Amino acid sequence: MAKERGETIWTALDRKATAIAEFTMRQYRTRISTWVVLGVGFLSISVVLLFYIDAMNTEIEAIDNDGDSFDSDGDGYVDGQEFKLGTDVFDEFSHPGLFNPPIEPEPASMYVNEDDYDWDYSDARSVSTGYDDDGDCRESQLLESQKDTNNDGTPCNILIVFNSLTGEYEIFADSGVDEDPDEDRYGKEAQHRAFVLAIGKLGFVFLLSIFIPLFLATGLIRDEMTSGTMHYMTAKPIARGEIFLYRMLGYLGIVWPYMLVMCLLMAIISGLLGPGDQFFRFADLGVWFSVLIAALLATLVYGMLFSFLGVLWKYGIILALPIAAWELGMALLSMSVPESTFLRMSVVGWSMSIIDSGALLVWPDMDMFTQAGSWAGGSNDGNSFLSFETESLPGHGALEWAQSDLGLGMGPYPTIIVSMIILLAQAAFFWFIGQLVFKSKEIE
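-> structure tokens emitted (444 positions)
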């Protein structure tokens, strides 16, 4: 008998929830304003996507970062070839053409991007080494001691050490080793990662997750109260707290599938167009999954918050605007100072922690890869023609801005779990105070 009673109770709850949620979804589907809001969100994301597509299809010009493609003495032999064969790069009467037999000049293009970064990024936060691919260190006439300018005991290599005090990687290269990175290769990868992180954080978690609830959830309860249709709901044996919750389920029934489709669309396009030899960047799906989880939870929390503000005051959208401005500030702060305690008082801060954690799991080399983009050549041997200085590599600035360290001081998995729990707790809190205010309100 007790089992039958329990089944009857749950059946009744299910029937009430389904009826109100379906009614809410039907309301949304028949309103032009719903499709306008969703359409504007789609167009906003699509505009950013167009810039990404253009960037992935634009070749980045190769630059001679170390300067060895120049012919300093005008003898027809570039500095890199002369350095490798031991002739004087500043003496036009000293060049490989005077050898017996004479050696033909090599084209300058051989010394542009000739020795790209080749260390293993996956071994994050450890000592890694690169190699002298083009041989201008190993085959040069330098003494063995001169081939080990980073003093690590290994000639012609590059040493990358994580400095725990500064939290950055320090790069120590022997003469001519990995001194001329490929701008196109690095830039495309950096721009791709920057796009995924930026569109995930600012596009999905901030723009869509605030913009959509602002217009769809603020009047979720208030509109029914002012139009009089709420009388029909409260006339049934349904608590107002349940009505608040079931209406929210209807809202999520529209918003969550929309977020899923948008994330899936971005993941497919970026996976196909992203740099690399593979047909599709399957690993990136892990980052997009973290973006989806963060966006779903953010739309839930903002939906609860804005719906509560709508119940609190019929002009609740005015109350929501300062909150949106605060969240924008927190979004920008999260991308520059992720450890700030102010972020713990926001929805966007916890949501972005999920994305940063997902990115770190998929791209464990993120810190090293970002740091590598700030080092665009140079040498430690003191030779002026090898100490050629350039600006950071293309895409480095965008990636450095878009990526953030985990601000909670924990690993990625604990950060994801804690962030999800906090966001769900925030949603439960806003529902609780929202339904309390709703109970105290008189329906017009």
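Residues 183-216 form the longest helix (34 residues).
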